[in-house]
Amino acid sequence: MSVIDATRIALNLDMLALPASLRVKRLEVQEYTDTDGEPALRILAVIDDAVDVEHVSGGDVSNMKSAIRESLRRGGIRQFAYVFIAKQSELDDDDGEER
After folding, report:
1. Local confidence band at 95 (pLDDT 50, 70, 90 cut-offs)
2. Which of 9, 38, 46, 74 shows a CA-CA span of 20 to 30 A to 17?
3. 88, 63 in Cβ contact below 8 A?
4. Which residues contact 85 (CB under 8 A, 6 or more apart)?
5. What is the CA radius of gyration of the chain?
6. Domain containing 10 — which CATH number?
7. Whole domain around residue 56: which residue ranges?
8. pLDDT digits over 34-43, tens only?
9. What is the rounded distance in angstroms from the CA atom of residue 33 to the CA atom of residue 45?
10. What is the domain count for the chain?
11. What is the C-alpha separation between 16 and 74, in angstroms, rounded?
C-alpha cells in the first residue's frame, strides 16, 4: 500500500476527534519534500465556508494538527505532516487567479 493510500485510511474524518469549531469537510494529502530534502506529507484541511475564523482558537487548530499527526503515527506513517487550513471558497478564488 502506498503512503498516500495509508494516509487516507488513517485520516478518515469519521474516525478523527477534530474540534467541532473547525468543521473540517475534507482532508487532502500530497507527498512533499521538506526544506531539508526529507520526505514529508502536505495535508490540507478544508473547512466549512461558514466557519468564522476570528472565533476559532489557536488551541483548536493545535488540537486538530495533533489529532491528525497522532492518527498518522497509529497508522504506521512516520513522515512529518505539514498541515494547512483553507476554506473551499479560498481555494476556488485561487483557481480563478491568473498565474
Report:
1. low
2. 38
3. no
4. 22, 44, 45, 47, 61, 64
5. 14
6. 3.30.300
7. 3-96
8. 999 999 999 9
9. 19
10. 1
11. 12
